[in-house]
Fold:
Amino acid sequence: MKMSEIFYSIQGEGIKTGLPSVFFRVSHCNLRCHWCDTPYTSWKPENKEVTVEQAVNMIEEYGCKNVVITGGEPFVWKKELRFLCDQLWYDGYHITIETNATIFEEVEFDLMSMSPKLESSTPYDRDPKWAKKHDRERVKIDVIDEFISRCTHNNLRDYQLKFVVVDGSELEEIQDILGSLRQYSNRNVLLMPEGRTAKEVEDKQLWLVELCMAHGFRYSDRLHTRLWGTKRGV
Ligand code: SF4
Structure:
């Protein structure tokens, strides 16, 4: 598979915020969010070839049993991802997978962190050809349903639905997606401000917290953005 980077940091988003973790970032993505905060895995993907065995060895070197497999889109590498998760599971890791939830594969995991993309992510101005594909593929209800059902059948697993929000008018779109799912719980739904700098996050946080309170969703910060902005490897 192709990877972009590996580093040790704390989880900055979602229900595991603050947890020290090793981040293994794969390269390549099937979508092209116009505000993608890792364009070096999507718009201009980096291409370091790595075998599953090498990936496991690199992760092991950090001596931390929490691993976050992120991207890019990890499920672009379905077969390799399955082998990687099998090995990490066997070795006793807590596995979080950060995914756009558009591709399904049966893999071992502890937390499936799904981030379905809203219309505001579509790169209309940036690349009309990609915009069409992106818009067609950005929400796959059947894939989200499958991942959630893997958690309800195994209560050692959990999931989160993390929506990146640009403005409050997107609430209806979020509710439409949630309303199409077979099942979900509000405790697993997080709204997170879009932003690549601390200022962009701060500008959205107050109205987004109020929106969460009004509708019973969780608020997710972007702690790493606040602390380090767009700096890589942290
Ligand atoms: S799904 Fe994630 S990695 Fe892919 S383009 Fe969007 S933000 Fe970037």
Remarks:
- Residues 29, 31-33, 36, 38, 41-42, 71-73, 100 surround iron/sulfur cluster (CB under 6 Å).
- The first helix runs from residue 52 to 60.
